[in-house]
Write a structure and sequence with these properties.
Elements: H1 6-14, H2 20-26, H3 34-53, H4 66-77, H5 85-89, E1 93-95, E2 113-124, E3 130-140, E4 145-147, H6 149-160, E5 163-164, H7 166-181, E6 185-194, E7 219-228, H8 237-246, H9 262-265, H10 267-276, H11 296-309, H12 322-330, E8 350-351, E9 358-361, E10 364-376, E11 381-392, E12 399-400, H13 402-413, E13 416-417, H14 419-431, E14 437-446, E15 461-468, H15 474-491
């Protein structure tokens, strides 16, 4: 069953029929206190205001349970506010007879201990979008005791599950470990990735984007924090820490982590700087009203309510502009601002030019790696990737202009969506022009996959839609799919 059946599926769930995970989702409030339930309901009410501000009907199929899902994701993603490090570390410190009273630097348990490649995510405090983290933690034991290794990653997770900034996150992890396990020193290195805003991402038909489905094109930063003997300038332990990372092909050099700038980390801040310099269009005024009667100011107040419900102070200086930034992101998905016009499109828009973006196999025309960025209507989180389009045209050598197909993708992507529907809508639009046969493949990363219970960093989703001859001609379909595989291999 695809996401397109969400509305009917939700009705089944209300009658007690459905997958166990979704049944559990309906009753997730059952173990909460009255205060927690009240906060969750407040977030749901705020999300309904945001949906109305986007010109959407919160009661339509597909959106009916979106407020619940968003509230659950926010609460799970900020659970660190309610967790204490001492509860994690307590009972996980073990005596180690081989340790001397002082600090050991030679083999055994007395040397540097490093846990590498801890995959985390956190919510950016500037825009409320999740960002991905690869965390590396090291410490030098002292006092004849060591800590259970899993506790290092659990402590890191506590602080990542809060609204964060990369450098503060590194500092808090380092400080918490140093104060709780009393080691000779602690080292923390974080590699963080933040998705670009649509103004910089390929929600624009003229933009370019790497075809390889990884985190290229994201804003990346390296930050670090250290304490004790790992912070001493004359100590070689920091070099040892970096050397142990290199054994797993994690290449961080001295000085790499000193280049962090908070103002250039979150793309909302970069965009705001551009706005202040007059390089971009102005953001909507607070008094602007959506077709549902919700003002821009009401949407910002709703986001402030979400911050308050999560236990944060919306007046904290780092959060003052957060409602504006989050609403700015959401406004790129307004369903009312796009009007796809294909009526005037015909073979007159075709061209004879074949470049690296086209592969003509007999009558199959292939246009690969059209970038897009869209917004998941189930969680109000972005998903992004590339679209591959193939179509059959009896006029060999003729092909529709890439810019036209980019416009088609852009029109369907820049709204609240699900990937299955997006794939089908693009296929149907192209099929209305070339009705012999059309195949569309969409490959995408979903931020909801890293910022919810599943937390699958690096996973991606592929969907396919076939119409006309492609649905019956296995050879034609296979040729097109092989074209994509060959292209991905050459890009890799």
């Amino acid at each position: 069953m695809g996401a397109l059946d969400a509305g009917c599926f939700e009705e089944e769930l209300e009658n007690g029929v459905g997958l166990e995970e979704d049944v559990a989702e309906i009753g997730w409030e059952s173990g909460m206190t009255d205060s927690e339930s009240e906060s969750a309901r407040a977030i749901e009410d705020a999300v309904r205001v945001l949906l109305q501000g986007l010109g959407e009907d919160p009661e339509r199929e597909g959106l009916r349970r979106t407020p619940h899902r968003v509230a659950k994701a926010f609460r799970e993603g900020t659970r660190g506010y309610k967790q204490k490090v001492k509860d994690i570390v307590q009972g996980a410190l073990f005596p180690e007879a081989g340790l001397e009273t002082g600090t050991g630097h030679a083999g055994g348990a007395g040397g540097l201990v490093v846990v590498r490649n801890i995959n985390l995510f956190s919510y950016c405090e500037s825009c409320l979008l999740p960002f991905s983290i690869q965390c590396h933690v090291g410490y030098v034991p002292s006092g004849r005791r060591v800590v259970g290794l899993s506790k290092l990653s659990r402590v890191a997770d506590v602080f990542s599950k809060r609204l964060q900034d990369p450098q503060r996150l590194a500092n808090e992890i380092c400080s918490a470990l140093h104060n709780s396990i009393k080691p000779a020193g602690v080292a923390v290195a974080l590699h963080c990735w933040h998705i670009q805003f649509p103004e910089a991402l390929p929600c624009n038909s003229n933009s370019t984007y790497p075809s390889k489905l990884d985190m290229q094109g994201w804003i990346q930063v390296l930050v670090s924090s250290s304490s004790g003997v790992l912070k001493e300038e004359k100590s070689s332990l920091w070099d040892d820490f970096l050397a142990l990372l290199k054994l797993k092909s994690i290449n961080i050099e001295r000085g790499d982590t000193n280049l962090y700038s908070a103002s250039s980390w979150c793309p909302s801040r970069v965009l705001e700087t551009s706005l202040c310099n007059g390089h971009c269009a102005r953001s909507p005024k607070n008094g602007k009203t959506s077709k549902t009667g919700v003002t821009h100011a009401s949407m910002m107040a709703a986001v402030a309510s979400i911050l308050h419900s999560l236990g944060e102070d919306p007046s904290r200086k780092e959060l003052v502009r957060t409602p504006h930034h989050y609403v700015q992101w959401l406004m790129n998905s307004r369903s009312s601002n796009l009007d796809l016009r294909l009526n005037g499109l015909s073979k007159a828009n075709s061209c004879n030019v074949v470049d690296g973006n086209f592969t003509c196999l007999n009558e199959i025309q292939s246009v690969l790696n059209i970038p897009f960025c869209s917004q998941c209507e189930h969680h109000l989180l972005p998903f992004h990737g590339v679209v591959h389009i193939g179509y059959l045209d009896k006029q060999e050598g003729k092909c529709i202009e890439r810019s036209v197909l980019q416009s088609v993708v852009h029109s369907f992507a820049c709204k609240l969506q699900v990937q299955e529907r997006l794939t089908r809508q693009i296929a149907e639009a192209v099929y209305s022009i070339f009705n012999i046969g059309v195949i569309v493949v969409v490959e995408a990363h979903h931020l909801c996959m890293i910022s919810r219970g599943i937390e699958k960093v690096g996973s991606n989703t592929a969907t396919i839609a076939v119409l006309g001859q492609f649905s019956t001609d296995a050879k034609a379909k296979g040729l097109f799919l092989q074209t994509i595989a060959d292209n991905n291999a050459s890009e890799g």
